[in-house]
Amino acid sequence: MERLVVIGGGESGVGASILAQKQGFEVFLTDLGEIKPEYKMVLNQKQISYEEKKHSEEKILNADWIIKSPGISKNSALIKKIKEKNIKISSEIEFASQYTGAKLIAITGSNGKTTTTSLAYHIFKNAGYNVGLAGNIGKSFAWQVSEENFDYYILEISSFQLDDIQNFKPHISMILNLSPDHLDEYGYNYQNYIDAKFKITKNQDPQDYFIYNEDDKMILEWFNKNNTEANRFPFSLKSEVKNGAYMDGNNIKIQVNSERLEMKINELALSGKHNVANSMAAGIAGKLSKIKSEVIKQSLADFEAVEHRLEFTYKINGISFINDSKATNVNSVYYALETMNSPVIWIVGGKDKGNDYTELIPFVEQKVKAIVCLGLDNTKIIETFKDIVSEIVETQSMKDAVQAAYSLGKKDDVVLLSPACASFDLFKNYEDRGNQFKEEVKKL
After folding, report:
1. Nearest-angstrom CA–CA distance, 371 and 356
2. N or C: fewer beta carbons within 10 Å in the chain?
3. CATH code for 3-90?
C-alpha cells in the first residue's frame, strides 16, 4: 500500500486526505499549527491518522507521495528535505484532478480570480449545468471529487497550486492578468512567478482552450518565447479581437467561432474596467461550453459581488466605507482606486510581499486625501507617499485604523480598506481582516 502524507490540516489538506483514503492509500496528515475542531472531527470519524503542532520528520520522509498545502512555503526546510529525498510532491488540485472525469475550467491571474471564478460558476449554474466550485474558493476540490459527481468544476487556482503541476489538464484555462505578487516565494524574480502561472496551460492539447488578456504585455512577452497547444481566445479592453472578446465603445462583444454575443457595459452587474475584463473572460468560457447567449447576458447582469472585494459596507454621516480586504497586492489596489470617484481615505499595509508602490502614485495624487497605515512595518508605504499625501497616520489595530479614517473623513468621502499586502502580521487571513473592518465600522 502506498503511503501518502498530507502537509497542512486546513480545507484542502483534509479534503486530500479523504480522497486519498478512498483511493486506497495509507494516509497520514501533519500540521505545524492547531487543526480546527471541525476538521479534527472529520479526520477522527474517517479514522485518518494525523498529528498537530509538529512535523515528525520520520513519519513524513518515508512517504511515497506528499500533498502540500498551498500555504506552506516551498522554501521551508521540510520541503527542501522532501525534495532531497526525491519524494513526489503535488498540490491538492493536481492530486484530485487525477480522480475525476469532469471538465475542468481553471482560472488564474494576479487579480480578479475570485470574482471571475464566481462569475463563471454563476453562468454555468444558471445554464443548469451540474457544476462544482473549488480551488482557492468554496469547498476543497479533492473533498468534492471524493463525495460529489459533478460534470464540470470551476477552479480558482493560485501560482502556489501551479508550482507542483505534473498532469493537471484543464479543458479551459485562463490567465486574467499578471503583476508582481508573492515575489518573496519566487526568489524576488518576476519571471519565476510568470512561469508558474503559465503552468496552467502545460498539459493542454488542441482540444482545449486558453483564455487570456491581450492587453497584458507580460502575457504577450511569454508568447514570444513559448507556446501552448490549446486554442487561444484573447480578450481586450483596447483593440478588436476576431475570436474572443473586446470592448467596443459602450459595449462588450464576444465572438466564439460563429457564435456572437453583444451586451451594454452599463448592464453588467460589476463596475470598473477590470470587471469588464473579468466579465468578458467568464463570458468566453460560457460560450466555449455551449451556453446560450441569453443565459450568459442574464448572469453577467444579475451577479452579486464577492465579499471582501470592493464590498460597500456602510454609509455613516455621508462617509462611505468600502471593504476591499482581498486586495493583497499593488495591482488590486490600482483597480480599486481606478473605480473611486470621491476623495479617498485609504487604509493600507500588512505583510509586504516585495511590493513596488510607485505605480499607484498617479491615482494616489489624484484621489487620496489621507492614508491610514495598518501594519507592523509601514516604512515603505510612508517613504513612497510622504511627499504626495500630507496626512499619513500609523495604526496597529483595525479599531484604531477605522477610527482614524473616520475622524479624517467628511461627507461624500470614501474610506477604502485596500491593503496591498498579505494580512498575516495582524490577522488570520484577509477574511478576518475584512470582517474586523466591517465590525469596527458598525460600532462607529
Report:
1. 17
2. N
3. 3.40.50.720
